[in-house]
Design goal:
The protein is α+β, with helices and mostly antiparallel strands. It contains six helices and eight strands. Strands 1-7-8-4-3-5 form a six-stranded antiparallel beta sheet. Strands 2-6 form a two-stranded antiparallel ribbon. Strand 3 and strand 4 form a beta hairpin. The longest helix has 12 residues, at about 45-55.
Amino acid sequence: MFMGEYNHTVDAKGRLIVPSKFRELLGEEFVITKGLDGCLFMYSSEEWKNIEVKFREISQFSKDARKFARFFFASAAVCEVDKQGRVLISAVLREFAGIEKEVVLAGVVNRIEIWSKDRWQETSEYDDVEEVAEHMASLGIII
């Protein structure tokens, strides 16, 4: 399980240090793609295969399924860390997520979210967390 929050920077070439705790769980190859809420999603190869299997079960006659597939899969890139523990994030993905220099990596159960620090600060304001928690409880997710 991925958890925790780490602050790092992206260098001029678009490389980002992946925290060692995350590298251990990601394995040698992993996938980075456009995420929701303006961040990037990073998945281990194993988790990515699970997503692929589930997605193949969805009807491709669904307009929403096709639209989401183009958004999610077309931007995906297989990645690996270099000897210094860095991963290269493509310019397209950095632009989508508004990543310029300061970055937050957040472990979120089955994935890592990569945020520009500014977007992370905007998104992590939890004024309505009690209301969200009640909704999650109604779905059977109890903390």
